[in-house]
Amino acid sequence: MLKSIGDALVAFGPLGVFVIAVLDSLGVPLVGGVDALVIYLAVKTPHIAYIAATTATVGSILGNLLLFRGARYGVQRFASEEAPLGKRQKFRLWFQRYGLLTVFIPAVTPFVPLPLKVFVISAGAMHTPVSRFLGVVLLARVIRYYGEAYLGIRLGEDAHGFLTRNGWNIAGIAVAVALVLVGLIRWRDRRRAEA
Known about the structure:
Largest sheet: none
Structural class: mainly alpha
Helix content: over 70%
Shape: globular
Number of domains: 1
Radius of gyration: 18 Å
Strand content: under 5%
Order of helices and strands: HHHHHHH
Number of helices: 7
Number of strands: 0
Mean pLDDT: 81
């Protein structure tokens, strides 16, 4: 049955990837669905692998943008008044400094259960500039989906296994990059304060 589903998805090709990417990014639980499909298409039909990666990226950006916008416009209606203003303000300031890193890490890391939707909703609720949000998601998704397409073409059937075996290493690299960026942000803030 799994083979017939895979064959059907290959028949839909990049359009199927786009639809699944939109749904996945909107919050419909499809754990590993887009990643597995991009790899599967890259292995079975290498000539459209990068087209599939492009449609996955565009679909993911669209789905995340819809979720982001929904959070942005829905937060005023559903905002909790129970949290003291000081705590909300501290979280808002923290998110303005580091929040997009919390979007980048789960957006770029495949097969590691990181809660991207929570951070997308937080970015929308904190009124993160749309251009900055889209830039972070675009960068992360291009790295992720084009990397998977490349691995699918180069490694064939072992691409999924490679990502599974190295998922925590990839997550560790993403966290290390995030820590370096946090350090750079703090260094920049100190330099500004001194100036």
